[in-house]
Specification:
Largest sheet: 11 strands, mixed
Mean pLDDT: 86
Oligomer: single chain
Radius of gyration: 18 Å
Distance between the termini: 36 Å
Strand order of the largest sheet: 10-11-12-13-1-2-5-7-8-9-14
Order of helices and strands: EEEEHEEEEEEEEEHE
Number of helices: 2
Structural class: alpha+beta
Shape: globular
Number of strands: 14
Helix content: 10-25%
Low-confidence stretches: none
Length: 252
């Protein structure tokens, strides 16, 4: 069993308030991966970070430059965004590559110092199906209140304009992870999502089970996303063109 990493199970909820209300919920499965334990993944049945496996950590699925180890790439990103990396650990909340395929709309990097205090969060967004990435770099205050607001800077959905503002709230308590995200136009909430997860020990049995079941869960979620997009189209929700952009990052 990996000491600091975990499997996470829970739900994600989406609700659109305007121009027409639209809501749905589905199950979510993610991995809470201490980056210091990447080399130990091969001890789990069907998992690996270095060779083909049903569940694999694949370095190029995450932050560039890919010539660096991932933790060093996180520290490099913090430095370029005026945050001094502190000695400690970085934990990645993500969906690992499964059966050779990657479906990972968002990954979060939680940066802790040696006192186990969270001093920075990086949210790495991948927009399906364009496969572009953007990182929002968030500086945590010393009051343990992880609330952030900032302008939207990355195109994710054709049904959302760029002229919106994000409001994010993270609650990390024991084995519970809750991430709430709202998009507002002025003072009016346009869209809200809530990710609620519970950590479970990453044992060999759970690792093997997740390797077999995860691709089917992933396909179900992917099908649900496109089904919901079709429903939005049928409701005649306005669509917005994709602004040309490259991989990028922003600091908040």
């Amino acid at each position: 069993m990996l000491q600091h990493s975990a499997l996470c199970e829970g739900t994600i909820y989406h609700v659109r308030q305007k121009p027409r209300r639209h809501a749905f919920q589905y199950k979510s499965n993610m991995v809470w991966l201490d980056l210091d334990e990447i080399d130990q993944l091969s001890a789990m049945p069907f998992w690996s970070a270095t060779r083909r496996a049903l569940t694999r950590f694949y370095r190029s699925d995450y932050l560039a430059p890919h010539t660096m180890e991932l933790q060093q790439a996180v520290y490099h990103l913090l430095t370029t965004n005026s945050i001094v990396p502190e000695p400690g650990r970085v934990v990645l909340l993500t969906q690992l590559r499964s059966w050779g395929h990657s479906f990972n709309p968002v990954s979060f990097y939680f940066c802790y110092n040696q006192s186990n205090e969270l001093y920075a969060i990086v949210a790495e967004i991948t927009n399906t199906p364009w496969r572009e990435r953007h990182q929002y770099v968030l500086r945590c205050d010393q009051l343990h209140k992880y609330y952030f607001e900032f302008d939207k800077q990355f195109h994710v959905s054709p049904f959302m304009p760029m002229t919106l503002r994000y409001f994010w709230n993270f609650r990390l308590e024991g084995d519970s992870i809750a991430i709430d995200m709202s998009l507002k136009e002025g003072k009016e909430t346009v869209f809200r999502s809530a990710l609620n997860l519970r950590k479970k020990p990453l044992t060999r049995a759970r690792a093997a089970c997740s390797s077999v079941l995860f691709p089917f869960r992933c396909l179900r979620v992917l099908a649900a996303i496109y089904w919901q997009a079709l429903r939005l189209w049928l409701k005649k929700i306005p669509q917005y063109d994709h602004p040309e952009s490259a991989d990028s990052a922003s600091h908040h």
